[in-house]
Amino acid sequence: MSLLACSIFVAVANPALAHDDHCDAVAASVADAGFAASVTVTCTETQAILTSDTYPDHDMMTGIVGTNEQVPVPAEYPAPVVLNPVFSGKPLTRDAALGVAVNGVPIYDYTGGGEMSEADLAHHQAQHDTLQTGQLDVCGGHAGRGDDYHYHVAPTCMIAQMANAGPEAIIGWAFDGFPIYGDTNPDGTTIEGGVLDVCNGQTDDTFGYRYHTSQEAPYIVQCLMGELPNFNDLPRVRPLSAASGGGAQPGRPPQGGVQNLVFTQSTDGSRSMDYSYQGEDYYIRYSPSATENCYDYSTKTVTNDGDVMEGEFCR
Fold it and tell me: From start to end residue, where is composition biased (Polar residues) (predicted)?
């Protein structure tokens, strides 16, 4: 029997937890990990909503070489997780988050080159691999085009912070309602080669199906195997816009990468990302302005040819 056929059989024979139990499981995964103070979980008839500011309490941006000259800025993010998941076996992809970690940080697939086609899923997209191209920090994340922090591979720093860290701990949830675990089975046994499907998942006795992180690409969930009737309505983080009108210019990765990138945070809410490129120093700095959800920026970037620019930008 093929893996796909086996997955469908098990998912039907062992249906996912009922609505209330699934809601409790999502809430417990956040609380047991120790993130209940920063992530709220509310359940509707169809979804568990995990709401956070997408801003984790761990190191960020350290180790990035292939920067896109974007910095992480807090952003309210309601992540919807289906409460009655149904395995479909038909992979869904999108150029945005596919799920959320238990600390409220969105989880993307491993690429940074736009939405993958179904054909792309079967082949490693080396040129768009955010890990191999140096775009990720030591914690597995970076700031994207929306100046939001998110993960593209296993969130190692978050996992190290989890109060219940271990093979059986759920580290996140895909939007289709299925849980995400680490590199091993929940009982700690090794996942043999060829067991995980194209979305980096396999069948599960409790939830019907589960996703995993892995040391090799695709590293984490890269597509969704569950039904999602409102797939096109899944949330996206809105990029910052200038207070005077118009959007901020997206950053572009400096060719060949940058050196000595350091991201610092102060207790007053100000942040600074400093780095060098071809012997020149550059920076992106911001602090909360007098306007709610707005920030005063001062930047000197490769994208803007080294010109110093200032302005107020808002969510």
Answer: 261-274
Interatomic CA distance for residues 88 and 98, integer angstroms: 16
With tokens 């309490």, the residue in question is 57
Domain coordinates in residue numbering, the chain: 3-233, 241-314
DSSP per-residue string spanning 6-51 = HHHHHHHHSPPPPHHHHHHHHHHHHHHHT-TTT-EEEE-SSEEEEE
Give residue-wise pLDDT tens across range 90-121: 999 999 999 999 999 999 999 998 899 999 99
Residue at token pair 């491993």: 110
The Cα–Cα gap between 252 and 69 comes to 6
Q: How far is residue 244 CA from its own chain's centroid?
A: 30
Tally of CA atoms within 13 A in the half-sphere of 31 that contains its CB: 8
| 3-class SS of residue 8 | helix
User: Tokens at residue 253, please?
Assistant: 């990765």
Q: Count the Cβ atoms, other than its own, within 10 Å of residue 255.
A: 9
And the tokens for 227? 């039904």
Is-above-0.90 flag for pTM?
Answer: yes
Nearest to 54 by CA among 33, 66, 71: 71
R_g of the chain computed on alpha carbons? 20
**228-249 confidence digits (pLDDT tens):** 989 999 999 988 999 987 666 6
Q: Which residues pair with residue 263 across a beta bridge?
A: 273
E-only strand ranges, 9-55: 40-43, 47-52
- Per-residue H/E/C for 121-171: HCCCCHHHECCCCCCCCCCCEEECCCCCEEECCCCHHHHHHCCCCCCCCCC
Nearest residue to 141 (alpha-carbon basis) of 51, 50, 199, 68: 68
- Tokens found for residue 291: 């306007």
Residue of 86, 133, 87 whose CA lies nearest to 110? 133
